[in-house]
Amino acid sequence: MRLIPLAATLTLLAGVASAQPQCGGSFADFRAAMQDAAIARGVAPDTARAFFDGTRQDDATLAADRKQGVFTLPFTEFARRLISADRVTRGRANAERYADTFAAIERDYGVSRGVLLAFWAFETDYGAFQGDFNTVNSLMTLAHDCRRPELFRPQVFAALELFARGALDPDTTTGAWAGEIGMVQMLPQDIIENGVDADGNGTVDLKTSPRDALSSGGKMLQHLGWRAGEPWLEEVDVPGSMDWSLANIDTTLSPSEWAALGVTPRDGGWDADLPASLVLPQGRNGPAFIAYPNFNVFFEWNQSFTYVLTAAYFATRLEGAPVFDAGNPPPPLSGAQMRDLQQKLAARGHDVGEVDGILGAGTRSAVRAEQQRLGLPADAWPTTELLNAL
């Protein structure tokens, strides 16, 4: 895939994205409206018709969007599911096999090899399972759905741009249910902006060329704000008591300030003298990490806190970090208990978002606030004690 000038591409996408066909309702009417919007902004009518005519609503995509139960798991269980000995072994083998590619990525984009290996592993098991959803049908389905249309409509038109270049086939291109394509699962607009022909064969092939896929992922992370040469996560030990409300991704202190509070790196030394946040995914008695500024870039790739922390930790593991200390945290609430807790928090005026049983950022913040109000350790880990107190 040869990239056309980015400025021209973004101009087209911005214009098309401004059109707002109605979500919901008749899918046929929505498809026609999307096609008309593309033509009105300069896409050749034959090209638009060839792209949109065969698209259909995909119920399996909607089912996958509604069912993401794995994100209800606590960090320790989630990490143990995703990080196997086999994945560690294959990750390190791939680091050696593509050492020249990773060296070029680190030189050109500043992204450490462990980070890309972690995404490669989690997204597609190093390319083995890239998804069998029809990409265009999935994007059109999610753009038509009223839950997040503003997120997916620009991706439909980016896919149209790739089709116009001959780089995507609406009938045969497949990927993940949310429209991501290739070994590190990139959305069409990300491919347009960050696709790299690293193997020099004249095309950007994210499905069969690890060199292209990894380099494109590295460029995208740089585009998202990755800071070259800086760490992202470091495991630490925490004292038995401190102001647990400071364990907040939005609170940053210097390593010397954390040290003064009794926080110590598990390996004995701080990775960098940078602003850092204390992350306690399962409260004060569970695993503990210091997150540096690069950690926030992971959220640009995926919004799940548990996924992001697991990917960030696995990246350090692939570069030599030990297995994390799981500690002995109180057991997690059941799904029903978590939804009950979210309802109680919402009733007290907290913004927890959707009542879905997932311990997201809004729920963690609300839990911390209620723990402080009730005089409990404010470590943002919901317990039956807190639920009963509410």
TrEMBL record:
Signal among keywords: yes
Domain Transglycosylase SLT residues, every copy: 27-315
Domain of life: Bacteria
Domain Peptidoglycan binding-like: 334-390
SUPFAM superfamilies found in the cross-reference section: Lysozyme-like, PGBD-like
Signal peptide: 1-19
Pfam families: PG_binding_1, SLT_2
Key words of the record: Signal
Keyword Transit peptide attributed: no
GO biological process, one term: peptidoglycan catabolic process
Example of a GO MF term: peptidoglycan lytic transglycosylase activity
InterPro entries: Lysozyme-like_dom_sf (IPR023346), MltB-like (IPR043426), MltB_2 (IPR011970), Peptidoglycan-bd-like (IPR002477), PGBD-like_sf (IPR036365), PGBDSf (IPR036366), SLT_2 (IPR031304)
Name recorded for this polypeptide: Lytic murein transglycosylase
